[in-house]
DNA sequence: GCCGTTTTCGGCCCGACTGTTTTCAGTCG
């Protein structure tokens, strides 16, 4: 069973307990456990089998529920709770404005057990007729049902950044903005983003808010005030802008960056030291004095902590490490010296070899790899061995004119269903660098996929496994495989695992990158660019690797070219 | 239900907003 399914099972228990008005701390324990499970790259049951105390937030009780979920797909507790509230009632909680208390009441008092029925009672007035529910609440819920049906899903990271930077550019251009930063999950470079958040300082906040609500991409204004405005952008995405006093900027930015779990742990850490954190600063409980913070650096320093990079604010072990000043020095975007996964118009790319070489050189790269598809990928105009040789000659010819950048003649070679490579060994041997990637037969069992990946990893010609899970964010969930076994094989073989920087992939994902690094695997961070302007996607890959805890020395394409050559000739 | 370089029992993050209320519960981030 996938960790995501286990987490969903625990969340369902939490939702049901909440409707029965169980102990709030017990409910929170289930939610915390669900989040903990979700952040693991390895199946939670495997970790617990090795070490019963191996996952913070999971004790004896929840551990048993996890075993039940693994064995039967459900838990006795959930079955019992469903006597009171059927499964469909839990779905009501996904409508914004519907909490557990209200969901329980509409079911008990109105017999509503689905979103469709909720919509009906919101329209016919029965919802507004409940005590402590008025016409405004009912209308709000109805509006949220409509919005929920239109765009329930979170947006991919790339979309979030393109939307929020466009708004930021407009606000900055209008003048009067002194500071402006993206907050929330976009700032943490989480792979999907719900709402967009901006935190800023302005000389005349009201004027800036006016600019915001009148932007052409603003579809609807939810609220407008001097400190906070909320708008719906075209496409239905919500954006909140908060403008604060300069002396509160650090505190507020920290608060609205999250993650929620990071902030909860940080507040617990503070409470244990006689301090109380809120978005307005840090209060010394004994004296009642609240310190305000202009920068996040000062905020973390005041807690006796090393500054915690936004990518690590996941509510894992970062506070404990920061207290010991033991956080890793993460790789920086400027550390990247090359891009080892690039396509041209020889296969399915849009640019010529020369255009890609110039673009990489203009980014200041010292090396790059041209890695067009192998022949088996007919849809991507994959190269035959003959065309591959012709392309290599063309690459050498272009490269001779750009001595400032080393151009590796490579290929992204399809890994067939049985783990064999799409080119014979003698063809692979001619290449400077080989990326093995899966593009077909993605519905294999975990056992098949594991064996397939390991066979490719152990092929001595294969240097990198490209987008290892094949997931597409918002599309397919990616292949299941045994992370431990695959990463152990990669560490033994010296085969790198790619963090594909395309925001539709981000694959390895953050937690998998962490697991790979713990297994001793080195990463590459590549854009897989099919056009010149996609070289700039590198930042998303670096941020994802940072979320996995990657340092410069963990990433091949942050190493000088001599080291790359040494690795490739291993 | 979980957890402990103050605790194995007694705690568990914090505040804003909204709507429905004569003092606050529920929801959200």
Can you describe this structure?
With 570 residues, the protein is of the alpha/beta class. It has 25 helices and 17 strands. The protein has a 7-stranded parallel β-sheet with strand order 11-12-13-14-15-16-17. Helix 1 packs across helix 7 and helix 14 (249-257) crosses helix 16. The longest helix is centred in the N-terminal third of the chain and has 18 residues, at 157-174. It binds one DNA strand of 29 nucleotides through helix 2, helix 4, helix 7, helix 10 and helix 15.
Based on the model shown, name its key terms:
570 residues; alpha/beta; seven-stranded parallel beta sheet; five-stranded mixed beta sheet; globular
Map the helices and strands.
Elements (H helix, E strand, L loop, with lengths): L2 H17 L4 H15 L5 H7 L9 H13 L3 H6 L5 H4 L9 H11 L4 H10 L1 H4 L5 H16 L4 E2 H18 L2 E7 H4 L4 E2 L2 E7 L2 H9 L4 E7 L3 E6 L4 E6 L5 H9 L2 H12 L3 E4 L2 E4 L4 E3 L4 H7 L15 H6 L14 E5 L10 H10 L4 E7 L11 H16 L5 E9 L10 H5 L3 E5 L8 H13 L5 E3 L16 H11 L2 E5 L9 H9 L4 E4 L11 H10 L13 H8 L2
Helix pairs in contact: 1-2, 1-7, 8-10, 14-16, 21-22, 23-24
The chain binds one DNA strand of 29 nucleotides through helix 2, helix 4, helix 7, helix 10 and helix 15.
């Amino acid at each position: 069973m996938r960790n995501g399914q286990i987490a969903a099972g625990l969340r369902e228990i939490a939702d049901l307990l909440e409707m029965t008005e169980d102990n709030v701390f017990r409910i929170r324990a289930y939610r915390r456990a669900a989040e903990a499970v979700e952040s693991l790259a390895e199946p939670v049951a495997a970790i617990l089998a090795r070490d019963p105390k191996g996952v913070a937030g999971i004790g004896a009780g929840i551990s048993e529920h996890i075993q039940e979920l693994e064995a039967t797909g459900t838990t006795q507790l959930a079955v019992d709770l469903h006597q009171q509230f059927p499964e469909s009632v839990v779905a009501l909680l996904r409508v914004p404005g519907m909490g557990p208390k209200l969901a329980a009441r509409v079911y008990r008092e109105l017999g509503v057990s689905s979103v469709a029925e909720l919509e009906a009672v919101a329209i016919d007035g029965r919802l507004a007729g409940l005590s402590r529910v008025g016409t405004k609440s009912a209308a709000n819920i109805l509006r949220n049902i409509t919005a929920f049906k239109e765009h329930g899903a979170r947006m991919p990271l790339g979309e979030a950044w393109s939307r929020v930077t466009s708004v930021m550019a407009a606000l900055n251009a209008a003048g009067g903005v002194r500071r402006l930063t993206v907050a929330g999950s976009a700032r943490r470079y989480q792979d999907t983003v719900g709402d967009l958040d901006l935190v800023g300082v302005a000389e005349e906040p009201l004027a800036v808010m006016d600019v915001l609500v009148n932007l052409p991409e603003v579809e609807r204004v939810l609220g407008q005030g001097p400190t906070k405005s909320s708008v719906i952008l075209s496409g239905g995405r919500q954006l909140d802008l908060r403008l604060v006093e300069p002396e509160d900027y650090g505190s507020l930015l920290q608060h609205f960056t999250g993650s929620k779990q990071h902030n909860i742990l940080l507040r617990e850490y503070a409470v244990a030291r006689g301090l109380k954190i809120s978005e307005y600063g840090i209060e010394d409980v004994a004296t009642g004095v609240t310190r305000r913070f202009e920068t996040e650096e000062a905020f973390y320093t005041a807690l006796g902590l090393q500054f915690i990079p936004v990518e690590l604010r996941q509510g894992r072990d970062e506070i404990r490490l920061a207290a010991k000043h033991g956080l890793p020095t993460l790789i920086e975007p400027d550390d990247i010296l090359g891009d080892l996964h690039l396509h041209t118009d020889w296969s399915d790319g849009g640019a010529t070899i020369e255009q890609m070489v110039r673009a990489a050189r203009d980014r200041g790269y010292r090396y790059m790899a041209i890695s067009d598809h192998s022949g088996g990928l007919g849809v991507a105009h994959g190269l035959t061995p003959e065309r591959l040789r012709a392309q290599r000659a063309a690459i050498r010819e272009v490269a001779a004119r750009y001595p400032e950048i080393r151009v590796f003649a490579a290929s992204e070679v399809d890994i067939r269903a049985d783990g064999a490579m799409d080119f014979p060994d003698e063809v692979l041997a001619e290449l400077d660098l080989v990326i093995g990637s899966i593009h077909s037969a993605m519905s294999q069992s975990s056992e098949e996929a594991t064996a397939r990946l390991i066979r490719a990893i152990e092929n001595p010609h294969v240097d990198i496994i490209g987008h290892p899970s094949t997931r597409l964010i918002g599309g397919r969930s990616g292949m299941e495989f045994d992370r431990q076994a695959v990463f152990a094989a990669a560490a033994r073989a010296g085969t790198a695992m790619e963090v594909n920087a395309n925001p539709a992939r981000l694959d390895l994902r953050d937690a998998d990158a962490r697991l790979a690094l713990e297994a001793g695997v080195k990463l590459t961070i590549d854009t897989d660019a099919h056009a010149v302007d996609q070289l700039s996607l590198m930042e998303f890959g670096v941020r994802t690797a940072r979320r996995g805890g990657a340092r410069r020395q963990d990433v091949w394409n942050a190493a000088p070219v001599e080291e790359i050559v040494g690795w490739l000739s291993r």
